[in-house]
Amino acid sequence: MVFLDGMILVIVESPTKAKTLETILGKGFTVKASMGHIRDLPKSGLGVDVEHNFEPQYVVPEKGEKVLRDLKKVAKDADFVVLATDPDREGEAIAWHLKELLKPKNYGRAVFHEITKEAVKEAFDHKGTIDVKLVDAQQARRVLDRLVGYKLSPLLWKKVRYGLSAGRVQSVAVRLVVDRERERDAFTPVEYWSIGALFSSKEGKFSAQLVDYIAAASTPKTKKIEIANKDQADKILQELKADTYTISKVARSQKQKRAYPPFKTSTLQQSSSNVFGFPA
Q1: Which GO terms describe its biological process (predicted)?
Q2: Which of 115, 137, 159 is where one domain is finished?
Q3: Tell me: the pLDDT tens digits for 54-66?
């Protein structure tokens, strides 16, 4: 791992990971934990400036103040700061907040997916910068969560039960379910019948479905089948039984059927439920 001479501060999210990493890195490295998010939207108030491009108004929570003071103290004397928070959207945002608050002289972003000597060395040898697009994605999600949840949750407390929460995903899903249920309630069932037949020929047996027919009683026009009840079905059936039939056209086509894709967790659970009755 190539660094300039001097003290190197490494920041991760959890103290457990910090201890393990300190053992791997050895002398010359000081490893500290941010204890998760170092700042966030305030618990009281919306925390989003809707009049100015939905700018989030971050605050350092009370539990994070001491952590931040300690990190600032160490970062002030550090010659290089490595932001080694988790390799995901939240971890990238935490790294960005740390950089904004600590204002290090020099910094690098190290990403690793396992805490082994090889993985850590690879990450520290190929340090990068903060992925701003990933940070923007996290901020957008956080702001949306706040805009939806902060407005809807109190309504749920009044109308349903105190303590319920409404999120940006589940609220929309509930709306889709409600709309579908209203469609079901408004639907008026209509009775309809269909007629099928099993034919025999020299080449074997085949089945067919009645699509249209020429009514025997009146005009020779083809009549589209709309069978509304059993009496109508029986009447048409009696007319059809008296006739003989000729195959007027044979159309052949090739069809390809793709194999089902490999199971993932959700499809495995669905199939297990459908076939074996396993609970989801």
Answers
A1: DNA topological change
A2: 137
A3: 999 999 999 999 9
| Domain extent at residue 176 | 149-186
Tokens of 97: 């907040």
For residue 260, is it within any domain?
no
Q: What is the pTM for the complete model shown? A: 0.67
Check if the beta carbon of residue 130 is closer than 8 Å to that of residue 92. yes
State both tokens at 61: 């929570």
Q: Are residues 61 and 126 in the same domain?
A: yes
Do 110 and 127 contact (CB within 8 A), yes or no?
yes
Q: Are 116 and 126 in contact (CB under 8 A)?
A: no
Q: Indicate whether 75 and 36 sit together in one domain.
A: yes
**C-alpha angle 157/162/164, rounded to 5°?**
80
CA 171, 173, 179, 181 torsion-angle sign: negative
